[in-house]
Design brief:
With 219 residues, the chain is an alpha+beta fold. It has 2 domains: 104 residues, no CATH class; 88 residues, Pdz3 Domain (Roll). It is 56% helix and 16% strand. It has 8 helices and 6 strands; from the N terminus they run ααβαββαββαβααα. β2 and β3 form a beta hairpin. The chain is elongated and about 75 Å long.
Amino acid sequence: DEEKFENASTTSKLRVLAAGSSINLLTGLLALLLLSTLFSRASSGAVIIETVEGGPLDAAGIQRWDVIYAVNSTPVRSVWELAEYLDDASPGDPVLLSTSRGDILVILGEASGEGAERAWSMLGAAPPFMNYYESRLGLGSSFNIHLYLTLYWSFTVFLSIAVMNMLPLYPFDGERFLYTLLRRFAGSERWLQIAINVFSLCLIAANMIMSFMRNLILI
C-alpha cells in the first residue's frame, strides 16, 4: 500500500515505479519481434478492407479481407502499386484481378477524384487500405491479416502506454520516478515536484509551438 511504499528504500520505490512501464515496453517489443519474425518485410498485395455496396468489387464477389495480388497478370505488391496500375484505366474497362479467392473479372465503375482516389472509386473500394504481408506460417491470407493487425496494434498500444506512463507529469509514474530519484539528492522539498511538472509542461509546450511553426513554414 501507499504507507509501505513511502517507507521503502529509494531503490525499491524506483523498481516499483518502473515495473509497469517496463512490462508494457517488453510486451510491445515482444510483439514487434514476433511481427518481424513471422512476416516478410516486403508487402505482396493489397488488402480490401471495405467495399462500396453495389460497386464493382462487391458485384464481383470480392469481400472484406480479400487480397489482390495482381491485375491483368501484373503483380501489385501494395495499395499504391494497385492505384498506379489503374491510373491509366478508364470506367468500363475489364480487369482480371488475381485475388485470395482466385482470378476474378471486374468491370471498372465510374471514376471520381484524382490519383489513388480515382482508382478506389473505379474499383468500388472504400478506405482504410493496407498492404498485405505474407506470413511464414502458411495459414491463409485471412489468418495472416488478423495476426498481423493483432501484433501491430499490440506493439503500438503497449509501447504508447509505456512511454506515456513514464512522462514526468502528474499523475503518471514517470513524475514520481523522477521525483523519487531527485529527492535523494535534493531533499523532500515540495518545490522539486512542482519544478518537475513545470519543466515537463514547458517541454511539451515548446514541442507544440515548434510543430506549429514548422507547419506554417511548410504551408
